[in-house]
Write a structure and sequence with these properties.
Blueprint (H helix, E strand, L loop, with lengths): L8 H51 L5 H7 L4 H29 L2 H17 L8 H15 L2 H12 L8 H23 L7 H21 L4 H13 L11 H9 L2 H34 L6 H51 L7 H32 L5 H31 L1 H35 L1
Helix pairs in contact: 1-7, 1-8, 2-11, 3-5, 3-14, 4-5, 4-6, 4-8, 6-14, 7-12, 11-12, 11-13, 11-14, 11-15, 12-13, 12-15, 13-14, 14-15
Amino acid sequence: MGSVTITKPAQIGRVADKDILTNHAHQAKDAIKTTMLTTQQSSLNSIRLLYFFFRFSTGSLIPFFPLFMSSCGFTHEEIGKLQAIRPIVTMISAPLWGALSDNTDKKKLILISTFVISAICRQSLALFTDNMPLFASALCLTSIFYAGVTSLLDSIVVSSLSSKERLNFGKLRLWGELGNGISSTLMMHVSNNDAYGFEHLFIVHGVSAAVAVVFMLLCTPSDQHGQNQTKQMTKAKGSDNNDVIIDWKRSLLDAFTNAEIASILGAVAVTGCTISVLQNFNYINIRMLYKTHGQEDILGKEISMYRIFHTSGGMLTWWYSGTWQKRLGPNGVIIASVCCMPVIFFLYAGVGDGLDKRTKIGFAAAEAMRSATFAALWSSATIRVNMISPPHMTAVLQAIMEASYKGVGSTVGAYFGGAMCKQFGIANTFKLIGKCLVSLLCTLGALLVSSRQMKGSNASK
């Protein structure tokens, strides 16, 4: 007969206890995972709100500076010179704010302080509409403190994300585009309404800037992540001393001699130059065209429609920017963005007869492409520069990229754009720049193909 195994009651109890403990362990792990996911999602939602209200405040006034200056009686050439102040100041100030924040590890404090002071200085512009020197001085102070705000915010946010989450940076930035689009569309109605006017834009900007400050205080990620990165880098080098002296001269030299960083900064500068011309004069050109054809009564309504296309183009691009970077790579996205610029100029110059349906469709398409081009370029460049920069230089390089766009690029675009618009007219200037860009891109393409053929022939030998 076979033997029968008899399990004692004590053994049964121990087995049951093990099963209970195992179940509790699995439940605890599931609870921890759920809590981490909830916390992560809550953090991402906070960043979305932060970008929304930050860009809502800036979108309520900054896009309308050229129109505001024109209403003050400034000429096209004077507007170009005034608009050149901000990029020149940004070129100098942005890297300094970045270096200060990296040295002190007080990025959040510097971000909020500079944003508050810049908003106050921007409000003072309404007091000097009949005095160009004072207006220029107030604009200069505004630019000094605002120079590092966007780059600091992007640097803080990207540094707080994991490597997988960084490809979704565009989806977070999308909420800023949404806030900018809503505020600029609403303010376009206000600025074109005789009952209100530009002075009400300053009121809305002041209120929305105060709301943005509250969300900066509540939602901006802490500096802890960046501090941990720097500490890890220090330990990896075999030093536990917290007061490590960084050779900034050597670090900057290494950064600028990096071929990838240099090419990104160059593409950003070229795009900044071209978009600067458009930002400063495209709405002035549209307004003049509507006045010439007696359609001034629908100007506000249709420019608001163009702003909707502008917002939609940017939002879609921010949303799919991670997908495009996976397929084309950051450099491929940047090249594609630059190649779109000539088309945008030709569309803004007018593709129809006068102010017919084709011309208006061209304006709408140009608005969508302009915001899409910037979104694709900025998302790819921001993520890539943050990934390849040393931990102690994330804010500095982000600020240098901001200086390349708003400094070098926008300075050239605003100054020479104003002179060219005065000499040739706005529409003819757009056509001329579009043709120059086509020639430049064709030349660069031919040189690239030629160099590859030479490398191939040398390799075969």
